[in-house]
């Protein structure tokens, strides 16, 4: 809406620049009387000079005609419609320039301001992509390749992202962003092209993502893409651990919610420890131990013995669970220890 308002104001300004000179019309000529007299004298002298009977009077007529013409030339130009038309033409050109500039600057910025942060970033990436690509192809520097890759990745132009990140890694093979994004693009290329990826290529792609996670373990995107990659290879427990780390690093991130739910369901069906946890602990500590009403169990530093005591006897707001069988308690403690190790 704001963009339309700005565009409307620009159109009104353009109309004003175009029509105002025409509205002024004919401007008064302060030398009109003298100009008319001289032009009438000029025309009369021309008629007499054209008469064959002028005879001896011709030299005098020619001198008088020359004086009349010099007097006309000495007068300032008469204002008229031609000036208004020229001004209108200039105004039209100026209006077109203002409108064109606004179309590529002011209006897009207002339109971006009306979008949420993510949508605005994607639109801006599309707008910036041609220039960033041209710059990277000209300079061939790592910084420009990464900027081009980011814009291509964010705008969904994945073929360009593959090229940009591939070139960046040739210059420096230890770049987490380029590694993980190139890896996930290669891994999902089949979904984009409809061609099945080979096992060798899939393994290579997974290695890129895992290397990126090792280089930048505290980066949310590293854990997010690692989780997707591990899930694709059927490593559900490790995938869930990576995605839970992602949620811990980026509490507002919602990209993995559906996959986390699917992995939890799958694991609870096949993992008796998760079944025990879901029945007794998930309501307070979160479905995967990430915290809720109760603390985050994945960052706990309690020993196995201390955890067993708290589970059996309770502590503070946490109730006791004396009814747990020995088998269920052992499964639960092993699960919690695994989470602690994964969170370290």
Automatic annotation (TrEMBL):
Bilayer-crossing residues are 87-107
Record key words, sorted: Electron transport, Heme, Iron, Membrane, Metal-binding, TPR repeat, Transmembrane, Transmembrane helix, Transport
Q: Where is the Cytochrome c domain?
A: 268-344
InterPro entries registered for this protein in UniProt: Cyt_c-like_dom, Cyt_c-like_dom_sf, Cytochrome_c550/c551-like, TPR-like_helical_dom_sf, TPR_rpt
- TPR repeat ranges are 142-175
A family per Pfam? TPR_11
Q: Which domain of life is it from?
A: Bacteria
The record's section on PANTHER family has:
CYTOCHROME C-553-LIKE, MENAQUINOL-CYTOCHROME C REDUCTASE CYTOCHROME B_C SUBUNIT
- Name listed for the protein in its UniProt record: C-type cytochrome
